[in-house]
Amino acid sequence: MVGMVLHLLPDKSTVLVIGPPRSEKSILANQFLVDGIKKNEGVVYFITNNFPENVLGSVLSAFDKAAMTIIDCYSTYAGISKPSEEFIIRTSGPYALNEISIALTKAMKSMKPPIRIVFDSLSTLLLHNKPNEMEEFLEINIGKMKSRGATALLMVEEGVHDSKQLSLLESLTDATLKFSRDEKSMVLSTVGEDKKIKYKLDKNEIMVDDS
Prior knowledge:
Structural class: alpha/beta
Radius of gyration: 16 Å
Helix content: 25-40%
CATH architecture: 3-Layer(aba) Sandwich
Number of domains: 1
Mean pLDDT: 88
Shape: globular
Largest sheet: 11 strands, mixed
Order of helices and strands: EEHEHHEEHEHHEHEEEE
Strand order of the largest sheet: 1-11-10-9-8-2-7-6-3-4-5
Distance between the termini: 5 Å
CATH superfamily: P-loop containing nucleotide triphosphate hydrolases
CATH topology: Rossmann fold
């Protein structure tokens, strides 16, 4: 049966999503957020390497249907000083892990479960902070997300991180979804199982046949 890829993602879990820059993983993130908005779920969107106004696109078109918080880790760092707004929390930049943790806590407290969270991208935080600081940050905040029953996608750029970093991320998360560079397929890895999934794009959504 052909359907959206989202039903394959483990519920109330943290999923590491690996793929090339500007690839289908970005489509997956938008698809995941928009689906949550349509279902009136709480949505938290971390943006670390672009201005929110440049990347929201289809997410904003459904914005009034859900409680959504954008955590902007880019604008101030890029030299554009903007105040926080009702649905946008600004931080000093990708190196401000304490501010980012506080923003996540504030956002989740304002929402009733279920909650969906996207870090786009975690790679930016990894490049701006020391490994031990990132490990502590992830352990604490993954724990927070689990306690709130959130489902989170942690987006990571393929080829940017070494095997040691990736192994750490995989040990902290519940599943890994890796997009192939060469074909329309991805591998979903959970404890004890690797599942190859072929997909196609239909109206800017990722569709799979799991029959």
